[in-house]
Amino acid sequence: MIVNGVERPRPGSARRLLSDYLRHDLGLTGTHVGCEHGVCGCCTVLLDGRPVRSCLMLGVQAEGHQVTTIEGLAPSNEALHPVQQAFKECHGLQCGFCTPGFVLAIAGLLAENPSPSEQEIEEGIAGNLCRCTGYASIRRAVSRAAELSGGSRPE
Amino acid sequence: MKPPPFEYHAPSTPEQAVRLLAELEDAKVLAGGQSLIPLLNFRLARPAHLVDINGLSELDRVYERDGGVAVGATVRQTDAERRPLLSERCPLVPLALRHVAHRVVRNRGTVCGSVAHADPAAELCAALLALDGHVVARSVRGERLIRAADLFVGSFETALEPDELVTETWFPAHAPGDVALVEESRRHGDFAMAGVARAGRRLALFGVAPTPVLADAEDPTRDLHPSGDLESSPEFKLHLVRVLVGRAA
After folding, report:
1. Domains assigned to chain A
2. Which residue among A38, A96, A112, B150 has the highest number of C-beta atoms inside a 10 angstrom radius?
């Protein structure tokens, strides 16, 4: 499998969750593990460009696929991804635990739908929990990210 | 919160998959994994073998047959939701899919997996029952059709044999204007406390009995004895059914 552009070996054990493989075997601890049953969205990564829950996949199932984690999202060490930039500008994070999951879910959302409506934004982030309850700023960050990526802000 | 040990098998054809299911003792099919992996993580399921069907690329198809649309076993919910064939010929299916968990879960979850899992609150199971659709179950003995009315036998229980694989789910075509799917849940994307799928005059209720159940629009709560949970009492569920049947009309 290719993780953030680097070819990686198959996990040693089939019961290794993709989230644990990324964190423990590859040291990519930006993928956060909150609930481990698909509710919180903290472990969201991109699989072939689409956001998925890495705690609801076995590592071996990513064989032959491209995985992008929060460590691999920014285009370079100097530049931020538009979603990261928007989170920074709009104060889209407080404690930061949920942030990698939100950022990847939103990156996936905007890749498919560059100009989401308010309702599409709500639906797009509904699968991620922020226990600081910073949803208003996160919603603003989605609109800003759409703008930064060349889409339009919702009316 | 980690899966218990199991032996992992990744066949690449349906023939290999059903052979594995026939030969292995205590094997479970792994499709999208959006229900099975949480069950493993919680240790509520401890199968000795997992047969991962994600490599069965020939089942990744949506096509017309017999006056309806068949959805193959590896079609993701997100993809089914966007197939023009389904939105044009079977609009109740994308309508139901939009209520299934969240987008990120639907990116991985499959239509057939949801049907085979038979969650009492599953929208797709109720839609299949309302439409009088069926699944195709395949084993080394051959194929058989199981109608929705015969498929769901209990809570998370189906008429499928342990060695059978659902290769496709078939939905009869229907007119776009004459369907509805409404539900009530505490939060968007949660399991429904109660819901109604309507296809023409056929109503299927979900979240209120061990399986989806057909209901009479005149008296939808007749013979209904829902059990309560933390989110809703039996009385509240009955109230929701009456309200939702009205909304689905």
Report:
1. 2-72 (3.10.20.30), 82-148 (1.10.150.120)
2. A38
DSSP line for B37-66: HHHHHTTS---SEEEE-TT-GGG--EEEET
The b/e string for A110-149 (b: 16+ C-beta within 10 A; e otherwise) is: beeeeebeeebbebbbbbbbbeeebbebbbbbbbbbbebb
At A144 the pLDDT is: 97
pLDDT for A88:
97
Domain that holds residue B98: 57-172
Question: pLDDT tens digits for A76-111?
Answer: 999 999 999 999 999 999 999 999 999 999 999 999
CATH number for the domain spanning B32: value is 3.30.43.10
Residue A122 CA from chain centroid, whole number: 16
Cα separation, A72 vs A80, in Å, equals 11
Tell me the two tokens of residue B171.
């939905």
Query: Which pLDDT value is given to residue B9?
Result: 98
Tell me which residue in A20, A36, A60 faces B8 most closely, judged by beta carbons.
Answer: A60
Report pTM: 0.95
Cβ atoms B176, B84 nearer than 8 A: no
For tokens 């089942």, name the residue: B59
Q: Which of A14, A56, A61 shows the shortest C-beta gap to B38?
A: A56
Q: Identify the burial level of B193 via C-beta atoms within 10 angstroms of its C-beta, where 0-12 means exposed, 13-18 middle and 19 or more buried.
A: buried
**Closest-approach residue (CA) in chain B for A63:** B55
> Rounded distance, CA A13 to CA B183, Å?
40
pLDDT in tens, B128-139: 999 999 999 999
Interchain CB distance below 8 Å, A127 and B10: no
Please give the Cα distance from A93 to B79 (Å, whole number). Answer: 31
- B184 and B159 in a single domain? The answer is no
